[in-house]
């Protein structure tokens, strides 16, 4: 088998060590997810128990597949190549760890579904082996480039592509990979894909002095199959095109995944904005994440847009409240009543209620559209529009509400291997722990709630429209930290619009995504000031009229 030839470089001690490491990490991953979304199994309702059992079934199915694949590769009884073992023993511990992380990546890809669970396993093991965070990131980047080049070479020769579709030939190729070297690989593929495979693996294992046999045998059939590579990358964006998503977004206008920084990486990120200043903002909001020499950490970056005009209209209403001089009293009035006297909105001044109702009209429209878009997003992910690779979801305001709804739908379907990380900011959604635990079941990595008690716009919407008693964007979620990470940004966020400008700053300085560009954070601060000035000029042309319409002295008594 391919694994036997491959693993010949690891001695018995390290075969056993890495086998135990994989098993223990799989156990910790399950325990963390298990305890985080259901803290006490005996208190589960019937519906929750079914969800819990579905998670176990899906997780165990994936874990068994991983154990079988890696177990065969790390079988200590496999005959060893003395020269390869000697070479491996000469490595430092750091080099041995790096070598194993890269080999594990190739093994996980060979499962033909690089799921969010698989990626989480890779990164946890890399951390356990004290590898710098750039090691798995760069390994993914190099491997994806190699696969793309291989695919392009296969596709460029119609004859080879037709042959690769033959299951019989693929079987022969897979078996032949067991003992190939660079020269044998050229013989098997007729020289069509081999140069890219050889050079790509050479880059991946650069500095370790290992032959191309390592990577070629680990990737197995994936390296010789154009259809498999296509499925992994979601048709290289084709499945995320407007035509392909039309079926999943019926009843929602402008539903589209906008490519921002796409080079067919082994992971991807989708950003969802919560309000728009202009139609271009659906994409422009997320461009700051594309800057910096480590922007590839986000994988392929897309922005999700939908119902653009409704989001633009909402942005204008919020700006009117925030930047009209005659309405400067609103913030103090809202915070005074929600912090010092969190009573019924019926006791609020009539002027405040009027403003809340004006905002509420636009808010309710977009709120309902966001829920519909969340279901459409879930449908797209389940159809593997993104390919067979993990997804990170980031959103703020009503964009977070879209992601919130998406996660609930994924949980209903037991899709535990699609979403890796989720970051929600200023979310207008329930703080019910049961819902957040349910969503946690389909998030393999980080699940973050960013909130601000000083977000008086969100306070105003919730109090005057009686949507819910509590909002995730205003307070922490009452669950343990392994379930949801809560971050209070009340010192940064006062008005709801600020999330758009402070998103990269929050990601870097509060959530620890250190690869985000400092230059871009500074540039956004300048853009925010320019935006605020333009909005004040726009909404203060008739200040006196605004003061008359919304007189703070009016009360409901």
From TrEMBL:
Keyword Membrane (UniProt): yes
Lineage top rank: taxon: Eukaryota
Transmembrane segments: 173-198, 204-233
InterPro entries xrefs: AB_hydrolase_fold, DUF726
UniProt keywords, alphabetically: Membrane, Transmembrane, Transmembrane helix
Lipid bilayer topology: Multi-pass membrane protein
GO CC annotation terms, alphabetical: membrane
Positions in coiled-coil regions: none
Family according to the record: Belongs to the TMCO4 family.
Name this protein carries in UniProt: Lipase/AP-1 adaptor complex binding protein Mil1
Organism: Schizosaccharomyces osmophilus
Phylogenetic placement of the source organism: Eukaryota, Fungi, Dikarya, Ascomycota, Taphrinomycotina
Gene: mil1
């Amino acid at each position: 088998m391919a694994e036997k030839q491959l693993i010949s470089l690891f001695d018995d001690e390290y075969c056993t060590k890495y086998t135990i490491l994989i098993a223990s990490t799989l156990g910790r991953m399950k325990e963390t997810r298990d305890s985080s979304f259901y803290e006490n199994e005996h208190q589960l309702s019937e519906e929750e128990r079914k969800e819990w059992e579905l998670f176990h079934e899906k997780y165990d199915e994936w874990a068994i597949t991983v154990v079988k694949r890696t177990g065969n590769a790390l079988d200590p009884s496999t005959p060893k190549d003395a020269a390869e073992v000697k070479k491996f023993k000469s490595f430092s511990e750091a080099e041995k760890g790096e070598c194993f992380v890269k080999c594990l990546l190739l093994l996980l890809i060979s499962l033909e579904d690089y799921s969010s669970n698989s990626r989480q396993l890779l990164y946890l093991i890399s951390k356990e082996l004290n590898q710098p965070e750039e090691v798995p990131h760069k390994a993914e980047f190099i491997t994806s480039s190699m696969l793309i080049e291989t695919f392009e070479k296969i596709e460029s020769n119609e004859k080879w592509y037709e042959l690769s579709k033959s299951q019989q030939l693929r079987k022969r190729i897979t078996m032949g990979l067991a003992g190939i070297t660079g020269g044998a690989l050229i013989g098997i593929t007729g020289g069509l894909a081999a140069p890219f495979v050889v050079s790509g693996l050479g880059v991946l294992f650069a500095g370790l002095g290992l032959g191309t046999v390592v990577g070629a045998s680990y990737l197995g059939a994936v390296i010789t199959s154009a259809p498999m590579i296509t499925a992994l990358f979601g048709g290289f964006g084709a499945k995320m095109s407007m035509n392909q998503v039309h079926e999943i977004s019926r009843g929602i206008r402008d539903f589209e995944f906008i490519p921002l920084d796409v080079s067919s990486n082994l992971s991807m990120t989708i950003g969802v904005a919560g309000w728009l200043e202009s139609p271009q903002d659906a994409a422009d909001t997320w461009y700051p994440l594309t800057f910096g020499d480590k922007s590839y950490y986000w994988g392929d970056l897309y922005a999700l847009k939908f119902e653009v005009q409704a989001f633009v209209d909402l942005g204008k209403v919020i700006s009117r409240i925030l930047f009209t001089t005659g309405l400067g009293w609103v913030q103090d009035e809202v915070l005074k009543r929600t912090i010092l006297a969190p009573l019924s909105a019926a006791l609020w001044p009539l002027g405040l209620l009027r403003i809340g109702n004006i905002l509420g009209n636009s808010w309710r429209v977009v709120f309902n559209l966001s829920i519909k878009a969340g279901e459409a997003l879930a449908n797209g992910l389940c159809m593997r529009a993104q390919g067979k690779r993990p997804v990170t979801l980031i959103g703020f305001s009503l964009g977070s509400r879209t992601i919130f709804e998406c996660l609930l739908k994924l949980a209903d379907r037991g899709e535990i291997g699609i979403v890796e990380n989720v970051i929600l900011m200023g979310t207008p959604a329930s703080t019910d722990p049961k819902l957040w635990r349910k969503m946690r079941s389909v998030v393999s990595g980080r699940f973050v709630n960013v909130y601000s008690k000083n977000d008086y716009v969100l306070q105003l919407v919730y109090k005057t429209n009686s949507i819910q008693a509590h909002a995730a964007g205003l307070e922490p979620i009452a669950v343990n930290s392994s379930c949801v990470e809560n971050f209070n940004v009340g010192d940064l966020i006062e008005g709801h619009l600020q999330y758009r400008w402070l998103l990269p700053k929050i990601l870097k300085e509060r959530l620890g995504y250190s690869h985000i560009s400092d230059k871009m954070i500074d540039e956004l601060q300048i853009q925010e000031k320019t935006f605020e000035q333009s909005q004040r000029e726009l909404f203060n042309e008739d200040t006196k009229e605004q003061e008359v319409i919304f007189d703070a002295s009016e009360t409901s008594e």
